[in-house]
User: What shape does this take?
Amino acid sequence: MTATAEPDAAAQPLDPDELQEAPPEEPQNALEAVQELLEHVPDSFAGRNYLFAGGNPSFGGDLVGGDRHTVSGGQVHGDVVTGPKTTVYQFGSAFGAPPHASGEVPAEELTALTTVFRPGPAFQQALQQLREQRVLILTGRADTGRRSAALMLLHTLGIRRIRNLDPDVSPTALLTGAEPAPGYLLADYTTSRTRPLLRSDLDRLRETLAKQDGYLVVTTTRSAAIRELPTVDWQPPDPGLVLGAHLDALRDGLPSGRHLLTLEPVQEFLAKYPPIREVAGFAVELARYSPETGHPADLADFGHGIVQEKVGRWFGDDELPLQEKAFLISLAVFDHAPYTLAAECADKLFRRLETIRTPGRPDGIPPFGSSVEERMALAHAELTEETEQTPWGPVPQRMASFLDPRTAPTLLREVWTSHPSARPAITGWLNALATDSRALVRTRVASTTALLASVDLSATMSGLLGPWSGAKDFRLCLQAANSLALAYHAGTAAVPRILRSWAGDDSARRRWTAIRCYALLGPLMPAQALEAFVLAAERLSDGELDQLAAKFQPGALPPAPDRADRFQVLGLLEAAELLLLSAEAEQVLRALVRWLSGPASLRQLALAVFLTAARRTEDTAVGRPLLLDWYARSPRPEPGSVVSVTVLAVPEEPVPVRSLLVALWRTALEDRGYRDAALGVLRGWLIGAADQPETTARLTELFDDLAVTERDRQRLDHLVRTVRTGSPATPFPPGG
Assistant: This one.
């Protein structure tokens, strides 16, 4: 019998504060759930930076059932017509970009860096490009030392005053409001389809920098968003050179320690091409080593072995109180999170562990136990004063973190695989935390479950993922989806097979869970995700299709709360929309156009997904519409290449993206069930274009493409006139 084969007291609610409030009637919105997951997943989690195929999606707005739009202010002035005329928008004002935060790089950091930095193979190329172009985009993984390289490139040009720039600023606002300096560093900049760094941005930056004789280095990961820009791919220097430099600096004034580099453990360490940060840490250990008093094998403990030994020692020590062991487990789950959170959750785990050690006689928890300093010393952890972002704004917090980031995953694997008697308590604890009201707690439960699944999938499926996936509480279904997606990034190869099984399950909740998980993993497996969406659409009942249509009809009533299937169609809609706004947008767009010629369920889903995504704006509620930006950036088809929504090009002649977007718009405008919603979106775009000349120009192009017939021109003219005059939205008269 396994540890999770039957109910256990340790897996049941123990305290009144663990009894959660009644589950919500509706599942959490997909976009909101994704943003929470990305915000709170641990930095050290494998694959964190590869969720959604290489970056955090930049979305804005919300899912809206009826006509609800973002208004940026101002009015639409002047003559606005479509068809053979030129559409002209005039705006009364424009919003200036807010100045962004920046700070100067400490001189001590630059001084220390010059003593240990060693150039990589691309250093001279990068230096020449920076000197000639004044702007350099340095790409590479975050652990390659690219930030240090950027600082030293500026330093080599003789720049001693360097300012950090805020990486969250839009490309069009870079350097705006920043204090003038000879050198700028924009570290860890995130580009995306919705926030691209364009050649025009680089030209503007060069012009600004030339006026003040300044230079800028941007560090970022490689992505399609900057594929067409001149970049230099940063490769780290030989780790042996970096280790030698750090060793010399640490042994300053002492005999050279270069002979230590020939030791076998050192060579084994260097052969793994460790990240620059680990090289620096290993240098500290090596500088302490003495051939007279130490043994070369001692150096090997610097790696993962020393972490495993430390964890094994903790949980094999009978003298270590159970309460402190519970804290270590909790800290592993909440590594680099508020200390108070780790301590609070540790007490709940302790009570569950106590029911295993002394069933029926759980000891109380001392309200004033070990000091924080003692706990941190025991855990080889540290407290740092940081600011936590909360729904109420930034709040100062004491964050608890293991000194070695490998400790947390090593500890969780050790406890789960080597101490099966503790599993009922851990399972019950994670179950209770899975529906916590705090997003950070729920996300850490998901990442922990994913890690456990990567080392023992069978037990994790039995005790956590399986029950969650079919639970009546949608919060648990969401936990199953998030956990399984993270488990895939952690290397669990069986995830696609599990998803296929869930997608065809008799349980509607389990099918919902599979679809939500496909929304997360879709960019990595778009074909499988789209196939699952098609199968789900084919299973929709007439009632569910009516729900989908009603969502886009003004004045329609929401589905009855007792409808057991009321969330299937909404979950499918949200999942497909997320995939459309991901890195695989073009593949999804082509699928939507194909669906227009398919069964009624697929046609409805395609239009619903398209119009829902059309309401999304860039970054903020007053940003430009994402789909309009995509349309404008896509190449214009050759003259005369009109696209039919029923006769698509052969595979070797793909239809241009712009034509696909126009085809979807025209179909929506001609569909009786979705026409009003499509006009409502366009109306919102027109209103939001106030004080945005660039958006106006893009709308002009789109309207010209949509106005194919006289009927089209009349409909769009009517829409523009009502917006220009501020009249309420009125339906366009039927007929020719």
